[in-house]
Amino acid sequence: MRSAWLLALLLAAALPAAAREIRVEASLEPPVIGLEETATLTLVARTDSLDANPHFRPDFELENLQIVAGPFRSEDVSYVNGAISRSFRIAFRVRPLAVGKARAHSIALLLPPGQRVELEDRTITVQAEPTRPTRRPMRDPRFEDPIERLMRSPFDREMARRPPRDPAVHLRAELTPTNPWAGQQVLYTLYLYTRDDISAIMPRQLPTFRGFWTKDIPLPPSARPEMVDLDGVRHARVVLFQKALFPLRAGRYTIEPAKIELVARVIEPRVFGPSYVHSETARLSTAPQVLDVRPLPASAPPGFAGAVGRLGLTARLDRAELRLGEAATLTVKLSGPGNLQGVAEPKITLPAGLTLLPPQQQAEDSLRGTTVTGERTWTYAVVPDRPGSYTVHVPEIPYFDPAGGAYRIAAAPQLPLHALPRLPPAGP
Question: Which candidate, 232, 176, 203, places its Cα nearest to that of 371?
């Protein structure tokens, strides 16, 4: 469905890049509004290259208008006939203060690196009456003039019987799983279900996710809608927002509602005459989401420091044999799906005759689909003090496996290391 595809594009994020040639524009629409209606001020920067950065800061003044919502930011990249186009848009919802002319003036876009682009004023007309027709009340046929009923066209009779319908849109939030362990990843997904085309969407409120360590999950730029049944009716389902949540401790959490506002293009087929097409604004909200987080079992093994996931431990020496005066590099890596925040370095004790220098540590968290995968790498220098054969042992790291509901041990094999005497000095 075209609505879902458009929505996915509106929410996709483009790659950052350096500034180059950028085109800017401003609009204030619609040109005529009622005193109780709103208009949209939109500022856009466009470029035909991924090397250019269209981000900007807006600067403007309003006359006979006040901001009631915004700013709403969106960014997209499009490929049309082999040409790349990238745009960045900021919009404000504004309301008139009195009947007459209203305008946005002194409009400027501040582009990097310090460039200021000024635009012409944008003016609209404010009238006392609303511009959108009010919905006709349903007629009671018992009190309808029979002559008027006879003379009215079939199309008018149907319009009188059926007021314009609301958009067929629904907002849902889902948590997976709903009863996790402390420290286990929970996927929060905000879905829009729609049967109508969507021409604009504006986020109003997103949860704060207090009590969680979180990681954003970017939406893929080529995401397509999924056709699903909702209450027995076919809808296109689009992912609006996803975040990985890691509860910091056990207990009950309540995640606040998410709220959006959208404009839908509603098409209503008629028995007589053309289809009735109209735009409708809908304000949608999810229900609060409750998450019951289980505490980890009390039977934690010695050395457990809170790692939760499915983890593996590897260790390797860059050489198995060296001479006195040389050093071997020991690399220890703990990795796997899960939250490795706060994991400490392993306490390695070497046998007498070997010296271990403090490690260099590298931490990386990445995504595989919607799953957070962590990796912690420690790199040590191992220096022999005397010749001999040694065994380097890396201590095991206990972790909790939420899939199995049990503690497990990540272990690496022992590593042999043979130290040879120094080479005799070369003769004259």
Answer: 176
Where in the chain are the domains? Answer: 2-126, 165-293, 308-420
What confidence category does residue 7 fall into, taking pLDDT thresholds of 50, 70 and 90? very low
Topology of domain 165-293 in CATH is: Immunoglobulin-like (2.60.40)
Please tell me the predicted confidence (pLDDT) of residue 425: 79
- How many angstroms separate the CA atoms of 73 and 147, rounded? 54
Residue-wise pLDDT tens digits, 263-282: 887 777 666 667 667 778 88
Pairing relationship of beta strands 321-323 and 415-420 according to DSSP bridges: parallel
Strands (E), 156-275: 169-176, 186-194, 197-205, 212-216, 226-230, 233-247, 251-255, 259-268
Name which CATH class applies to 2-126.
mainly beta
d(C-alpha 274, C-alpha 53), whole Å: 45
CA distances from 139 to 132, 157, 160, 162, 271 (A): 20, 10, 7, 10, 19
2-126 and 308-420: identical CATH topology: yes
319 HSE (CA, 13 A, CB side): 14
Contacts of residue 77, Cβ cutoff 8 Å, sequence gap at least 6: 12, 14, 15, 50, 84, 85, 86, 221
Q: Smallest Cα–Cα separation from 199: which of 29, 49, 85, 46?
A: 29
Residue pointed to by tokens 């594009």: 9
Cα angle: 395, vertex 396, 398; to 5 degrees: 140
Give the integer Cα–Cα distance in Å for 311 and 299: 19
CATH number of 308-420, picked from 3.50.50.60, 2.60.40.740, 2.60.40.1220, 1.25.40.10: 2.60.40.740
pTM for the predicted model, two decimal places: 0.61
